[in-house]
Amino acid sequence: ARAKVIISENMRVIDEAEGATAIPEDAYTASGGLPEEAILCGVCGGGEATSDDDIILCDGVCGRAYHQKCLNPPLRLEDLPPDDEGWLCPPCEAKVNCIFYLNNLMNTAMPLDTPWQNIFDFDPVDSSESEGESSRRKMR
């Protein structure tokens, strides 16, 4: 029970992202686009981007954007993944890792957008049938 409390508390801290503000859902266009004036840093609230302090959108589920220099440590452009890969802000990266390990540990299929309050609400995935099926195939 104590471990669940500690895990829940850590997931809460990750979800709250030190108070960083998400871009409001109503700022997105019908096609899912985002007008430039709606892209504001979740930390400082500013929308001005410069060549050495661009605003980077997180490709995770948080809906946040960050100035490179508002992140701790600051994000260098050379640390961004190639265009075909998404960039995850530190809280989203931590959440992806935690949910991956929790799913493995608890044999669940918890989605990444699970709020911290619900992380222990998932039943284990019944994999006995598929495992049995694969072991039967191996025996033939």
From TrEMBL:
SUPFAM superfamilies: FYVE/PHD zinc finger (SSF57903). One of its GO terms (cellular component) is nucleus. CDD domains: PHD_PRHA_like. InterPro entries: PRHA-like_PHD-finger, Zinc_finger_PHD-type_CS, Znf_FYVE_PHD, Znf_PHD, Znf_PHD-finger, Znf_RING/FYVE/PHD. GO terms for biological process: negative regulation of gene expression, epigenetic. It is found in: Nucleus. PROSITE patterns: ZF_PHD_1, ZF_PHD_2. It holds the Pfam family PHD. Residues 38-95 form the PHD-type domain. Its main location: nucleus. It comes from the Eukaryota. One of its GO terms (molecular function) is chromatin binding. Keywords: DNA-binding, Homeobox, Metal-binding, Nucleus, Transcription, Transcription regulation, Zinc, Zinc-finger. This is PHD-type domain-containing protein. It comes from Chloropicon laureae.
